[in-house]
From TrEMBL:
<keyword id="KW-1133">Transmembrane helix</keyword>
<keyword id="KW-0472">Membrane</keyword>
<keyword id="KW-0812">Transmembrane</keyword>
<feature type="transmembrane region" description="Helical">
    <location>
        <begin position="202"/>
        <end position="219"/>
    </location>
</feature>
<feature type="transmembrane region" description="Helical">
    <location>
        <begin position="167"/>
        <end position="190"/>
    </location>
</feature>
<comment type="similarity">
    <text>Belongs to the TerC family.</text>
</comment>
<feature type="transmembrane region" description="Helical">
    <location>
        <begin position="47"/>
        <end position="70"/>
    </location>
</feature>
<dbReference type="Pfam" id="PF03741">
    <property type="entry name" value="TerC"/>
</dbReference>
<protein>
    <submittedName>
        <fullName>Membrane protein</fullName>
    </submittedName>
</protein>
<feature type="transmembrane region" description="Helical">
    <location>
        <begin position="82"/>
        <end position="104"/>
    </location>
</feature>
<feature type="transmembrane region" description="Helical">
    <location>
        <begin position="12"/>
        <end position="35"/>
    </location>
</feature>
<feature type="transmembrane region" description="Helical">
    <location>
        <begin position="135"/>
        <end position="155"/>
    </location>
</feature>
<dbReference type="GO" id="GO:0016020">
    <property type="term" value="C:membrane"/>
</dbReference>
<dbReference type="InterPro" id="IPR005496">
    <property type="entry name" value="Integral_membrane_TerC"/>
</dbReference>
<feature type="transmembrane region" description="Helical">
    <location>
        <begin position="239"/>
        <end position="257"/>
    </location>
</feature>
């Protein structure tokens, strides 16, 4: 396993996935902060830390559940016509539905952030929180909602990296632990950075659209889909890593130009 974790593909996947987990966790941090700020001051930090740690445990449990479903590779239904051939498995179904969900969720999130940037925050602020346990419960509910796209992103980034799915599961767990650890230690600075550079979060959501499309093509490839005699191929993950790295490089140059203009 150590040999796999030290490969260039695994390291690149881990770095990319950790970055996306942190970027996608920004909304989570904002909502957790809003929930925690309704408590007495001496309980706010405790609620944030406990909430994030329990959120990490919740995500790891979800990873095991999704990974079990992804492991179901045997086809349970086959469509075979003169123009279409599809061998449907639970693995393909999860990837296909997950891809559609990521595209829908990312598109709607981008629209909401552009048109109604404070909608969710205002909605949460209107809810009453009476105790520490109540705050932590609400934090876990919030995190569960955000965990779905986070888990699907992890599956999309690591699926097919190694024949043994347990190896990729360990890689996903490491990324979740690192990202939650970073969020616990740097929640306020991260939130401040994103508030100053909201384009970073929009960039992360745009990456999710790419990952969603990749999951759909991966599902078609794993189902041995043939359309008019042509088999659907999988998109090499190296293309995705390059697109993300190139976009981040351009955004970094944009930061530098903005700083020079401010000076």
């Amino acid at each position: 396993m150590l040999d796999f974790l030290l490969t260039s593909d695994a390291i690149m996947a881990l770095l990319t996935l950790t970055f996306l987990e942190i970027i996608l966790g920004i909304d989570n941090i904002v909502f957790i902060s809003i929930a925690a700020n309704k408590l007495p001051e001496h309980q706010q930090s405790k609620a944030t830390t406990i909430g994030l740690v329990l959120a990490m445990v919740q995500r790891i449990i979800l990873l095991f559940f999704v990974s079990f479903l992804i492991g179901l590779k045997e086809p349970f239904y086959t469509i075979d016509t003169s123009w279409l051939h599809v061998a449907i498995s639970w693995q393909a179904v999860i990837l296909f539905v997950g891809g559609l969900f990521l595209i829908y969720k990312s598109t709607s999130e981008i629209h909401e952030k552009v048109e109604m940037p404070l909608h969710d925050e205002n909605e949460l602020k209107g809810k009453k929180i009476k105790s520490l346990s109540h705050a932590i419960t609400q934090i876990l509910i919030i995190d569960f909602i955000f965990s779905v796209d986070s888990i699907l992103t992890a599956v999309g980034m690591t699926n097919g990296l190694h024949p043994n799915h347990n190896y990729t599961l360990v890689l996903m767990i490491i990324a979740v632990v690192i990202s939650i650890g970073v969020m616990i230690g740097f929640a306020n600075p991260i939130r401040k950075f994103i508030n100053e550079h909201p384009s970073m979060q929009l960039l992360g959501l745009a990456f999710l659209i790419l990952i969603g499309f990749m999951l759909i093509t991966e599902a078609a490839h794993l189902s041995h889909t043939k359309f008019l005699g042509n088999e659907v191929g999988a998109i090499p993950k190296g293309y995705l890593y390059f697109a993300i790295a190139f976009s981040l490089f351009v955004e970094f140059l944009n930061f530098r130009i903005q700083k020079k203009h401010k000076k």
